[in-house]
What we know:
The chain is of the alpha/beta class. The protein has two domains: 166 residues, VC0802-like; 209 residues, HUPs (Rossmann fold), CATH 3.40.50.
Amino acid sequence: MERVIIIHYHEVALKGNNRDFFENTLIENIKKSLVREDYSVVEKRYGSIIAHLNESADEELARSRIKKVFGVANFAFGFASKLDLATLKNDIWAHLKENPIPRTFRVTAKRSNKNFPKNSQEVAVDVGSFLYEKFEGMAKVDLKDPKLNCFCEIGERNSFFYFKKEKGYAGLPVGTAGKVLSLISSGFDSPIASWKMMRRGAKVVYLHFHSYPYTTKASVENVKAIIKKLDEYQFGSKAYFVPFAEIQKEISVKVHASQRVILYRRFMLRIAERIAKKEGIKALVTGDSLAQVASQTLDNIFVISQAVSMPILRPLIGDNKNDIIDIATEIGTYEISSQPYEDCCSLFMPSSPETHGKLDMVLQEEKKLDIESMINDALNNVEIFKIDD
C-alpha cells in the first residue's frame, strides 16, 4: 500500500472556466510546502489532489506544512489501493487488523469515477458489511458519531482509504488574486491583516517604516521574524524597510501637534503608493481596526485615505482585539509581536492627537512641508529584505 495525502478544496471548485488556473496554482503551492524528498508526485484528480509520499517521508512535518497551504479545505493521510473493491477491502483490513476493535464504526464512501460498477452508497454498504464480519459483530454501526470512520474514495485509476480528515484554512491559493503591499509593523494587527489577505489568494509584499537610529533596531528585527513566520504561508517574500524619522522630525517642527499622527499616516500611504506602483501592485493593506486608536476613527480614516488614489484594504476593520490575538497565537506571530520594541509610531507623538480630522485643515498644514522632497529622501534610503521561495 502506498502512503498518500488526499487533499480536498471547496472554493477553488467553484471557479468555473478559471478552475484549472486555481487548481494548478494550488498544486504548485503544495509542492513548495512539502520537502521535495518526501513525495514522488503531486497530481490532480477529479475534485481532489493526491500527494504520493515516499517511504521515508516525515508525516508530522508534512502535516504541519499542508495545513498552511491556503486553498486546502481538508486533507487526510491515507493509502492508495487498486480500482478493485476486493483489493480495497483487504487493504483496509490489513491496516485495521492489528488495532483494537472499535465499539462503533461507519464507512463513508465517495465515487468520482462514474464508470465504477457500484455507486457510493453501494460501496459503503459492501465495505461496511465486510468490516462487520471481520469485527465478528463486536463493533456496531453508528452513522452519527462512530469511534471509527473509514473513508473510501473511488477515483479514475485508484481507490483510496483513510480514517481521519484534518482541517485546512480553506480560502484561495496564494498567487491567484494578484499582489498587495501591506504596511506592516511588529505589533499584533498588521501581520494578521497580511495573513488574511494571503488567505484570499493575494501575494503579499511588505513595507515597514522605522525610526532608526532614533529608536533601536528591535522593530526591524521583529518584523523580519514575523515575515519569516508568515512566509510559511506564501513561499517567498519581499519587504521594503523605509526610514521615517526625518519625516517625523520635519512634521513635528512645522505642523500643529494635534495633526501629526494624521500627517504621519498620509506620508506613509504616499510612500506606499510609490512602492506599490513600482511593484505593479494595485492595492495597499493596513491593519486598521475601527476606532481602536486615534488614527482609526472614521473621520481620520477618511482624511488619511485621501492622500492616495490607490485602494486601501483593511481586512481587520471589524475585528475585536481578542479575535486578532487569537489568530496571532494560532499562526505563531503572537510571541514575536509580544517582544518589547520601539517603532516609528512611538516617536514624536503628541499628547492629544486629533480624533476627528478635517481634510481642509490637514491640507492647510501640509502646505508647510516640501512633500515631494521628503518622500524622495525616504525612498532613496530604502533597504530590501527577501526570502526566496
